[in-house]
Amino acid sequence: MNLTLKVWRQNGPDDKGHMEIYPVKDINPDMSFLEMMDVLNEELISEGKDPIAFDHDCREGICGMCSMFINGEPHGPERRTTTCQLHMRSFKDGDTIVVEPWRSAAFPVIKDLAVDRAAFDRIQQAGGYVSVNTSGNTIDANAIPVPKQNADKAFNAATCIGCGACVAACKNSSAMLFVSAKVSQYALLPQGKVEAKERVRKMVNQMDLEGFGNCTNTGACEAECPVGISLENIARMNREYLSASLSSAE
Amino acid sequence: MAKSALLGSSLAKKYWMALTGLFLSIFLVVHLAGNLVLLGGQAMAEDFNAYAEFMTTFPLIKIASYLLYASILFHAIDGILLTIQNRKARPVKYHYENPSANSGWASRNMAFLGTVMLLFIVGHMATFWWRMKFGEMPIDAVGQKDLYTVVATYFTTASTAWLHVLLYVVAMIAIGFHLWHGFQSAFQTMGVNHPKYTPVIKKVGYVFSVVIPALFAVIPIYMFITQ
Predict the structure, then answer these.
(1) Where are the strands (E) in chain A, listed by range?
(2) B6: pLDDT confidence band, cut at 50, 70 and 90?
(3) If contacts are CB pairs under 8 Å, which of residues 191-250 in chain A contact chain B?
(4) Domain that holds residue A10
(5) What is the residue-averaged pLDDT of chain A?
(6) What are the DSSP calls for chain B, one per residue?
(7) Same structural domain, A73 and A172
(8) pLDDT at A112 over 80
(9) A216, B110 Cβ separation under 8 angstroms
(10) Given an 8 Å threshold on Cβ–Cβ distance, is A205 in contact with B2?
(11) Is residue A66 over pLDDT 80?
(12) Is residue B175's pLDDT more than 90?
């Protein structure tokens, strides 16, 4: 396959950045998108040019590290797919592919296609945990009965890999799908109920402080999420937050 | 908490948006019920005028109408604040986007549709509401303010009547698209999302968003055609 890549180049957070065109030749259709980028970078390095910076780690679709806004969609055109699991057979010979970083005020560009997603870590730290005793007398998790339905929903919410595709896809750069998945995975389980009210208020507050936008319920996040986190979680977060705010003394 | 949770937070703004939006949807039904009397033509003009009189003078309706004006203003101002925040959340735009791959047109253009509706409401209230309340009105046979004649003149015999009808229909299309997304979106925002009820809410919303604006639009079109 021969392709034309239009790639965002930005030499650091303060650089204005621009689109640059790269022709790539003899690409194997069974390569992943990241491997195709590797081939391009090898060429750039052999020509003595600066390779394109992009995030990646496990390359198995489970870590959530790879990003890239490809042809107008996060992780490219395929559904339920991370960029490392996107293969070049999804494109046609001669295609022009536009590659950009996630664009959000809360995800500043570090270099080229790599963005800083530490805002997600700070939201998680604000309340995305349960306080359990780990000092030797840990209680067996299975000692508390959990309805199967709730366990399944909590597990589905917990499959969120924190990649940020929801923010990248949302026209408002809203992080509500991510935050709602993290709120839901605990709110649905008895172990998480203890801190549920405090958790949702703290996490939503941190989300607002990070400068993410608001939810318009377009559903773009759900459609683009590589693990299929449902909008049902956002509704759950809205319920949790409403009841927590109404009942709080503050 | 840095901000008052039920006033300043992102979710609070959404709750108010949803609640005022649903209240305004109920108002549309009440408004439409009255307007449909216009289809009775000159024969029912006095009934329409009596209805208009009742709506502008009955104390309980007056209280509801102040709540309505407040809701329109609140919905608009809240919407503007949310839109400003949303724009700020993405200071550098994408070079190429394919939004139709993951979302509907109406859901992405609520602010634009809302602006069209706000402009319409200003014009609409200046034409009818202001005149009914503060302006010079003709008087009908039984001594009521003759709103029927004002409406009929506006949509039939005025020199730009065709333009009035056209603008009205355009505004109704905007309301239709706004409701197409807004109706079910309001329930989602208030946390109502259920495998059994959400599909029903969505269907009711789609029917509501087509039928209500269509019936509104039929009235001036009918008056114009049968003048």
Answers:
(1) 3-9, 18-24, 69-70, 73-74, 96-100, 109-111, 114-115
(2) low
(3) 201, 204-205, 207-209, 211-220, 223-224, 231-232, 234-242, 244-246, 248, 250
(4) 3-111
(5) 96
(6) --S-TTTTSHHHHHHHHHHHHHHHHHHHHHHHHHHGGGGGGGGGHHHHHHHHHHHHH-HHHHHHHHHHHHHHHHHHHHHHHHHHHHHHT-SS--SS--GGGTS-HHHH-HHHHHHHHHHHHHHHIIIIIHHHHHS---B-TTSSB-HHHHHHIIIIISTTHHHHHHHHHHHHHHHHHHHHHHHHHHHHHTT---TTTHHHHHHHHHHHHHHHHHHHHHHHHHHHHT-
(7) no
(8) yes
(9) yes
(10) yes
(11) yes
(12) yes
The two three-digit tokens of residue B121, written as one number: 């409401």
Range of the domain at B116: 10-86+107-225
Q: How far apart are CA B198 and CA A156, in angstroms?
A: 20
Which of B88, B95, B189 minimises the CB distance to A98? B95
Share of chain A above pLDDT 70, in %: 100
Distance between CA atoms of residues A168 and A69, nearest Å? 7
Structure tokens that stand for B226 in this block: 């049968």
Are A103 and A175 found together in one domain?
Answer: no
**Structure token digits, residue B215:** 């019936």
Tokens standing for residue A216: 């318009």
Tell me what percent of the residues of chain A surpass a pLDDT of 90: 93
User: By the 8 A CB rule, do A172 and A213 touch?
Assistant: yes
A77 and A44 inside one domain: yes
Tell me if A96 sits within 8 A of A102, measured CB to CB: no
B227 at interface of A, judged by CB pairs closer than 8 A: no
Is the Cβ pair B5, A250 closer than 8 Å?
yes
Quote ipTM for the complex: 0.94
State whether A100 and B13 contact (CB < 8 Å): no
CA A188 to chain centre: 22
Structure tokens that stand for B14 in this block = 């959404």
- Using the 3D structure, point to which of A92, A111, A130 is the last residue of a domain: A111
Shared-domain flag, residues A7 and A98: yes
Please compute Rg for chain A using Cα positions. Answer: 20
Q: Given CB atoms, is B185 within the 8 Å cutoff of chain A? A: yes
With an 8 Å Cβ cutoff, are A103 and B93 in contact? yes
| Structural tokens at position A176 | 């509500």
Residue with tokens 């029903």: B200
